Amino acid sequence: MTSKPYGSTLPWSEPTWYTGRPSPYYKESHIKLRDAVRKWCEENITPKTEGWVEQGRVDPAIYLECAKAGLLVPIASGKSIPKEWSHYPIIGGIKPEEWDGFHDFVLWDELVRSGGIASLFVGLTVGAPPLLRFASKQLQDKIFPEILSGEKRICLAVTEPAAGSDVRNLTTTAEKTADGKHYIVNGEKKWITNGMFSDYFMTAVRTGGLGAEGISMLLIPRSEGVRTRPVPVIAGPLSSTTYVIFEDVKVPAEYLIGSEGNGFAQTMVNFNHERLWIVFQALRGCRTAIHDAMQWALKREAFGKTLIEQPVVRYKFGNMGRQIDALQAWTEQIVYELEHLSDKEAARKLGGTTALMKVEAGLVSKYVAEECLKIMGGLGLTKTGQGSRIEAFYRSVPGLVVPGGSEDVMIDLGVREALKISRQAEKAKSKL
Ligand SMILES: Cc1cc2nc3c(=O)[nH]c(=O)nc-3n(C[C@H](O)[C@H](O)[C@H](O)COP(=O)(O)OP(=O)(O)OC[C@H]3O[C@@H](n4cnc5c(N)ncnc54)[C@H](O)[C@@H]3O)c2cc1C
User: Which residues form the Acyl-CoA oxidase/dehydrogenase middle domain (predicted)?
Assistant: First the structure.
């Protein structure tokens, strides 16, 4: 469909479909969602972001407001909202049956645009899907009302000090008690986003022998034996990166997600949405940066003319713009494909390409952040004023490159998956 121009008219500052260009992907409900999220964020978030950055924390009260505004249900769901959740509010009045992967994209695009608030939801967006997809109905019925009302919070705890990319070799143990009623958990997790304020830790643990088959997913409530402390990271404290220690933590056996030994597969499936969501963040980060740099280049004079009148500066914008729009087009293609494949087929066919797209998002972000920073001159290194969003984006780029699968590991995975699909296709052809 074609919609009226919306938002900034500066080149590449908004997705192409916001500018009045036609798109096959977006319908009325996407426009409705976009308008509602932008309005809500501009009224409730943008005026507060600077204060949060100064304090080094997002005001926890905002989380309950987010629940009331209808943000938590779509964030916990991803690309489709369960029918049973229709009694919860959904922002923009979108119905669960209308919700698709493009709504997910629009939602995140607008949340990231508003600044600090997005970091508040990282735990929910990566921690809730295993509960939704793989947990027993009883566990879902107990936990979801707490976390969808904003009363309690969840995060995902996979990485350990000695096992990050190498998930297969994690060492946190969960041993069943003799009566089979509980697991006793011991181990440490590192760099857990939102961990400091989480009530539940969706945790990858070892319940069996060595390797992937020995890994399970266990929901660990904050309880006796769970200790957390902040880990300061480059992008700042708003996302509350955390070191978690489990010492003889007693967890009811029914908090196991699915069955024992499936934790590795569940973690890998979860990574696909996490990687896509990192691409969503990268795209809006690039657009915000190019917007601020363009605004500056149009008015800043040096050597008797504005920066934009310098061919070298225009060359930078052209190179940024083509990369951002190419990444947007690739992302939309993958979101479309996800809509048209079963979960199983999507995991098989799109895992590798999503990993490569995440790599591309990191590379485009690195390029855009650095070019925008240079265009701003000294302002690009300054935490306040007209360059502040570019300075913050520049610092946030490593957070798009390493978490959720580090660049080198993702490239290697992308190639291995592409070859696997090729071999499977050859086999299928030979059977015809
Ligand atoms: C800010 C932040 C937030 C995070 N949030 C979470 C979270 O919420 N939950 C969670 O569970 N984890 C989280 N993580 C952890 C994150 O997913 C890991 O840091 C990441 O997977 C890399 O693991 P690692 O740090 O152990 O690096 P390693 O696995 O030690 O790898 C280090 C480097 O070695 C190279 N390398 C390693 N293996 C290979 C290979 N096979 N092929 C090629 N090169 C390779 C790569 O260059 C890689 O970057 C977060 C991390 C950070 C920094």
Answer: 155-249
